[in-house]
Structures are given as C-alpha cells and as structure tokens.
C-alpha cells in the first residue's frame, strides 16, 4: 500500500456531446460550473493511452462532489445503453429529502427507469438518465 494519502478530487464521465449533456447537470441536477478547459499534446495522449487525444473538460461542483464531464477527440466507440448489472457500468448517486417531490419536479422529457420505488432496505430510489443515457440514482434514505 502506498504511503501517500488519497484525497477525492472528482468523478469523471466521458460524453459524446458536452453541450447536449451540460444543461441536464446544471438545470436538472443543480450543479454549478466550476471550470472549463482543453487538454491535448503528447503527454496527455500518453497519459490516457489514446493516440493524438484532445479533451474538452467541464468541472461542475455541487452537492458535496465535483463532476468532470469530458468530450474526447478522437471519439471512441459508443457503448450501448448502460444497464446497472453490466460489469463496468457506472452511475452517480445523490440523496434528497423528498424523492416524490424530486420526481414530480423533473422535466417532462427526463427519462427514468421507473417511478420512485421503496426497496426492502426501506430506502426509496429512482434512476434517471442524462441526455446520453448515463444513469443518475436519486435516493431518499429512511431513518
């Protein structure tokens, strides 16, 4: 084990169209724009192991976490719609005080996997997809 202490910095998500998904994270989930930047060059290509890579990055802050959205050139192969039981599948998870109210406030075009459900743990959960079908879990934790 390393003697260096790890500190969380961000959770990253690669997207095909940054401008298409950005409003979802800002307007629907309430994240604030913290920064925008581009990275390219040999060191970046070597670090991400993608020949001639360039990335456009957006950092979003809110709810105790920083999300990094990145659009790459060249774009890799598209993954079909992620299912929660797929190895390598990922999702963001956030809590709210009132899941029903959150659900009712979603825009009409927001895609959810179901209506809010209360599981055997007593917690209520809802999964919503961003415009590129990435999953975001919203939970109401039972006391």
From TrEMBL:
GO terms for molecular function: lyase activity; metal ion binding; methylmalonyl-CoA epimerase activity. InterPro entries: Glyas_Bleomycin-R_OHBP_Dase, Glyas_Fos-R_dOase_dom, MMCE/EMCE_epimerase, VOC_core. GO terms for biological process: L-methylmalonyl-CoA metabolic process. It holds the Pfam family Glyoxalase. PROSITE patterns: VOC. Keywords: Lyase, Metal-binding. Residues 7-141 form the VOC domain. It comes from the Archaea. This is Lactoylglutathione lyase. It comes from Natronolimnobius baerhuensis.
